Amino acid sequence: MASNAKTRGHIAVEAALLLPGLIALLAFAILLSRIQEANQLLEQATSMSARAASIARDTSTANKSAKQVANEILANGDCLKTSVVIDASGLLLPVGVPAATKVTATCTISLADIALPGLPSELQLEASSSSPIDAYRER
Questions:
Q1: Domains of the chain
Q2: Within 10 A of 126 (CB to CB), how many other CB atoms are there?
Q3: What confidence tens digit (pLDDT) does each residue in 66-109 have?
Q4: How far out from the chain centre does Cα 99 lie?
Q5: What DSSP string runs through 26-74?
Q6: Which pLDDT score, from 0 to 100, does residue 137 have?
Q7: Which of 16, 71, 99, 102 is the most exposed place for a label (fewest CB within 10 A)?
Q8: What local confidence, expressed as pLDDT, does residue 3 receive?
Q9: Is residue 114 classed exposed, middle or buried when 0-12, 13-18 and 19+ CB atoms within 10 A define those classes?
């Protein structure tokens, strides 16, 4: 069979047209996985920190232990900047009053190495979690 001169090079043209779209799709998948991983890390940090604060006996111990737990967990991630805010004011309420501790954490991740047009170089993510304080435990 002789090859037709009119169809010569079609594969190369098709590849040249499809390859940028496939690369963009791959970059978008990497972007989503990076955001999801950072979100999971933030959720874990806030959940564990709120729990650590809720089992403390006073607000200073609650703040110290919650911040330590959050920083240890967030150190394992790709966060450029982190911030942890702890609300342990429920420990100041009298015994018998239902209360909770709340932790809010933010993490800034870098997106500079993902080459997608219009994508910011950094993205700030935030998560919050609360944990109940035993209403009848001595505070």
A1: 8-133 (3.30.1300)
A2: 13
A3: 999 999 999 988 899 999 999 999 999 998 899 999 999 999 99
A4: 26
A5: HHHHHHHHHHHHHHHHHHHHHHHHHHHHHT-SSHHHHHHHHHHHHHHHH
A6: 78
A7: 16
A8: 59
A9: middle
- Contact present, 119 and 89 (Cβ < 8 Å): no
Residue 23's H or E segment, with its range, is helix 10-54
Q: Angle, nearest 10°, between helix axes 10-54 and 59-74? A: 160
Quote the pTM value. 0.82
Note whether 105 and 83 are within 8 A (CB): yes
Q: Are 108 and 120 in contact (CB under 8 A)?
A: no
